[in-house]
Design goal:
about 400 residues, four-stranded mixed beta sheet
């Protein structure tokens, strides 16, 4: 069976969304009922054959190269992955085998290294400055309203975490994976905390130092270029936080990571770990690990809770911010597209298409898929002095800082 006929047989059985396909021979066929939400352009039979053999990698590569394009709503196309029930397709056994290969052929790597971090975060600060917003927070924001802009939502995230940490003036805080220093600066400036932030990215480190100095908190914030495993055994903190870093640890390093945290926080101390995760365990899309985040691993709650419990880190609250991350990504996408010509000039068309595809894939995954965002609050050992309800989370930051 030709690639075109196989695609047509598959598309003909999709009735969840109306769309059109423009094949490499120029023929345009409409599928589903109603006006097409998008037109999928398949420009090469050879590339489409490769896509069939490994959808999870080759579709993204074909989009990057321009051999596959989408006119209209890209997220509607990506949403089909979550809406389709492949088991119900009336395909032959060989066709079903080829379909199965689309999602499962490549296994995810769980290793983590400086090289992996540099691959993503050391692209250049100028690139991230164009679309992350003024706070330069490359993690899920916290929306109190759907109308919140990205900077407001990121500051609300900082407050939300600082409240969960019960920060007090002169509390010592370790920020593992501090990025460009946004949370560290906020914790020092608005809560009076003494913060040590660590990162493996040289680009982040250099800009974080500049931002700390500009914010006037050099006496309260120290930024260090080091791995969390390089902190000395005598280092102890009242609080510890890690936002958007656990994804880079790897499954086999999960236990060591929480052992290190347990050793770094004082008895009775409080911590918060925020991480992208899964409701159930399966490999990260291999296109993402190949082009965007080498070594990425997305934990389930059980992956986190088991080693935490074993190492005296008592979970006291779990919050799932799935839709918050979808909204965060949509804000980033809007800024990304606004600055698309500058990004294209600095990098390449393939680079632009790669990042557009990635940001859209992530937004759809949080909104319609099984991807979630864990925000886990814990204590080192028992702490019976914490509030009985969550009401304290929504107090203004000024109320938590003594004069």
């Amino acid at each position: 069976m030709s690639s075109k006929k196989l695609f047509d047989r598959i598309f003909s059985q999709i009735d969840v969304l109306p769309f059109a396909v423009e094949y490499w021979d120029g023929e345009v066929i409409n599928y589903g009922d109603g006006p097409a939400l998008f037109v999928l352009q398949l420009k090469s039979e050879e590339v489409c054959g490769a896509v069939l053999s490994n959808l999870s990698v080759n579709f993204g590569e074909a989009y990057m190269s321009g051999d596959v394009d989408v006119l209209g709503d890209l997220q509607s196309l990506l949403r089909l992955v979550y809406l389709m029930d492949f088991d119900k397709f009336k395909l032959t056994l060989p066709e079903k085998v080829r379909m199965a290969l689309m999602a499962w052929r490549q296994r995810n790597t769980l290793t983590r290294s400086r090289r992996n971090i540099a691959h993503h975060y050391d692209i250049g600060n100028d690139f991230f400055l164009l679309w992350l917003g003024q706070e330069m927070a490359y993690s899920c924001a916290y929306f109190r309203s759907e109308g919140d802009d990205i900077d407001t939502a990121q500051r609300q995230k900082f407050d939300h975490i600082c409240h969960k940490l019960h920060l007090q003036p002169d509390s010592t805080l370790l920020d593992i994976g501090c990025g460009w220093g946004g949370l560290a600066i906020h914790a020092a400036k608005h809560y009076g905390a003494d913060v040590v932030g660590i990162t493996l990215s040289k680009e982040q480190y250099e800009l974080a130092l500049e931002r700390v100095a500009k914010a006037g908190v050099k006496h309260k914030v120290s930024i260090e270029l080091r791995d969390y495993r390089e902190l000395g055994a005598d280092a102890k903190f009242d609080r510890v936080v890690s936002v958007g870093m656990l994804e880079h640890v790897g499954k086999e390093n999960m236990s060591e990571y929480f052992v290190r945290i347990s050793n770094l926080v004082r008895d009775g101390g409080i911590g918060v770990v925020q991480s992208i995760g899964r409701m159930f365990e399966f490999p990260v899309n291999p296109w993402v690990t190949k082009y965007i985040f080498p070594g990425m691993y997305l934990p389930t709650l059980a992956n986190m809770a088991t080693p935490m419990g074993k190492h005296d880190l008592n979970i006291i609250d779990v919050e799932v911010l799935r839709l918050h991350y979808a909204m965060t990504l949509d804000r980033w996408l809007e800024a990304f597209e606004t600055n698309i010509e500058e990004i294209r000039t600095q990098y390449s068309e393939s680079f632009v298409r790669m990042w557009r595809f990635y940001l859209n894939v992530c937004s759809v995954g949080f909104r319609y898929g099984e991807t979630c965002l864990w925000q886990v609050q814990f204590t080192k050992g028992l702490n019976n002095a914490l509030p009985l309800t969550r009401e304290y989370l929504y107090a203004p930051a000024i109320e938590l800082v003594s004069t």
